[in-house]
Amino acid sequence: MVRALRESPAEPSIPQPRRTYEGQELAGRGASGEWDVVVVGGGFYGSSLAAQAARSGARVVLLEARADLLGGASYFNQARVHGGYHYPRSLRTAGRSQASYEAFMARYSGCVVDDFLCIYAVARGSLTNARKFRRVCDYIGAPLMDAPVSVRKMFNSATVEASWVVREAVFDAVRLRELVREELDEAGVTVRLGTPVAGVQERPTGVEVVLEDGELVTAGQALVCTYGEGIKALPAGVEYAGLHCEPCEMALVDLPDALRGKGVTVMDGPYFSLMPFPSTPYHTLSHVRYTPHGSYPTYEQAAAALRGGLASRADWMIRDAARFVPAIGEAVHRESLWGVKSVPARRDSDDARPVVLRRSDGGRVLSLLGSKIDNIGDALRVAEEHLRDAV
181 exposed, middle or buried (CB, 10 Å; 0-12, 13-18, 19+)? Predict the structure, then answer.
């Protein structure tokens, strides 16, 4: 079954949240300009930045267009906690991923799952080779063990050069959402759900955030963490230019017994990745060639393509992945998650995934594009100076 423009699966069901958290009042605060910081976007990055600012003493309001937090890019992904293996052509991205891995695992230990065998393989004719892959892993300190015979037999030796057992986990997006709610509540952040933003304006003494219903929310500074989604007007310097916005399909599949309890990624080029997706009984199957259904310069154009209806390519993903791991040919496509993925343009040569920060000309508005959820520590450090000025 394919679900159009869906950010979370039907199961497990999540109770609808209250519009604000208990004990917090909205009446009059935005209109009177009492906020130090307004954060636009209630994904993992926006929520984490809001909590960080509030813990430092700022009065913070978080605006999220959806009915719940972590409903967009924070949910629509492969839930991988990156250990650096995914980026052999970008030492900086690989190194930062490995450096962030332990910190993320420790802080969000109640939300991560690592009770599966995680396997990486390098395809013959790929953009890297076994020697280069091992050298990168050694350089960044990423644990790497030659795959045992039982694992190597899973692969087609005609298409796969080498395979390894690695250390990577996945996160449970539903449990992570619950933890983020708790952090926001404890930090004293006011959260407004179902509150789409039309525009952000910079003034000499602060910022004005215009909601789609015409309400004006004023603050000293603004952090925009929406990946270019929805906001029609932004100050000079923080516009979402230079992005690839891709309507994407993440297939959820049931696996044969031979692949249960395993995660498999084949590098480095137009290949695939198969990872457990906690909170469901399925695995996600993504494919470099077939997961994106086109590329657009704006989020709105990509979202319009999704709303127009796209045919699933899950069967194509399964057939192509079976060239490398024949047992995947027995996988059964159960449903697909659909969403928009925004990445910086001109990254095809090295596949780097930096945290992109843009500051408005007046310095009061900051936009953050976080590439990977486990790099939240880097994003918090990047924003720290800006947040400190808001207190």
Answer: middle
